[in-house]
Amino acid sequence: MKPLDHPLLTDENIQPEIVRRLRAAGRNVRSVVEEGIAGASDATVLQRAYEQQRVVLTHDGDFGELAVRAGKPFVGIIRLRPGHIAPDFVWEMLTAFELEVATPFLIIVKRVEERLHIRVRSGRQLMPQQSLYFLPLPQGHGALRPGFSTVRTCVGGGGANLASAIAASPSKAGASARSVAGK
């Protein structure tokens, strides 16, 4: 299942414009404001998301700490970096990647200049191995388009799955990807 196919709970640092765009795209999304927990601790937000089987969408790194190090139950976390930026920029990052993940999952999407760095940890045990994808943005285009990435498999975070996906389906528009395991 793709990360945005899950019901979402947006943290208070996600702009209302992003919530509107997600709904317009047919996504099941609630905000912490709508849930009446704006200003609550990250642990409370993560717990509410888990109770409702929702993925947390945030700019905040504390959710990953709670989930992985503190062992709090969760369905998924999508962290977008940098945070607190224009909605168009956030929307481009959020809709730029297409991949399948197993729950629970942790995805960090970081834009650095004209590249997206996407780190994925997924699967039952959230193995210490991760896949790290570097996807250059198309020439003359401000962001990746939905479907630009042909990397489809990252279940369990194994680099072999990534290598197989790239070999089976070369990236479009000169995009490249590489896997870094164990970091």
Please give the structural blueprint:
Layout: E1 8-10, H1 16-24, E2 29-31, H2 42-51, E3 55-58, H3 62-69, E4 76-81, H4 87-94, E5 105-112, E6 115-122, E7 131-136, H5 159-168
Parallel strand pairs: 1-2, 1-3, 3-4, 4-5
Antiparallel strand pairs: 5-6, 6-7
What's the short story on this structure?
The protein is of the alpha/beta class. The chain has helices spanning 16-24, 42-51, 62-69, 87-94, 159-168; strands spanning 8-10, 29-31, 55-58, 76-81, 105-112, 115-122, 131-136.
Shape: globular
Give the spatial strand order of the biggest sheet: 2-1-3-4-5-6-7
CATH class of the largest domain: Alpha Beta
* CATH-scheme architecture of the largest domain: 3-Layer(aba) Sandwich
Structural class: alpha/beta
What's the total count of β strands? 7
Terminal Cα span: 25 Å
Average of per-residue pLDDT values: 73
Uncertain parts: 127-183
Major pleated sheet? 7 strands, mixed
Radius of gyration: 16 Å
Total of helices: 5
Helix/strand order: EHEHEHEHEEEH
Kindly estimate the percentage of residues that lie in beta strands according to DSSP: 15-25%
As for the number of domains, it is: 2
What percent of the residues sit in helical stretches (DSSP H or I)? 10-25%
CATH topology of the largest domain: Rossmann fold
